[in-house]
Design a protein that fits this description.
mainly alpha
Length: 112
């Protein structure tokens, strides 16, 4: 019965690419496992996102102050770019908040 199944050398047939070389100075591009024990918990992730959002929202104001004070290293285009980025950040935060509230409502509707 065993002679019916073909015997393949699968390890020998694997083609190596730049993703998994690890040769020389080229680091492997494969991702690590998601279940990394050193990853932050949910509370740390959300607080980090809130801090990043706060920094993103304050960036246009700080750049505008620099432009108005006559600082030569900041251009009005930088202010407009920062304003657009903060607007996108607000939209993303609003969408995330809505999805979290929807998920919470669904969990609360589960009958035990």
């Amino acid at each position: 019965m065993d002679s019916f199944y073909p015997q393949y050398d699968l390890a020998g047939r694997i083609q190596h690419t730049k993703l998994d070389t690890g040769l020389g100075n080229i680091p492997s591009a494969r991702m690590n496992r998601v279940e990394d024990k050193t990853s932050p918990d949910f509370k740390q992730v959300l607080s980090g996102l809130a801090e990043d959002l706060n920094t993103e929202l304050n960036a246009p104001d700080n750049l505008l102050k620099d432009v108005m004070s006559g600082s030569g290293n900041v251009d009005i285009h930088d202010v407009m770019t920062a304003m657009a980025k903060s607007e996108i950040s607000i939209n993303v935060a609003t969408q995330i908040t809505g999805k979290v509230i929807q998920a919470y409502d669904k969990v609360m509707q589960i009958q035990v």
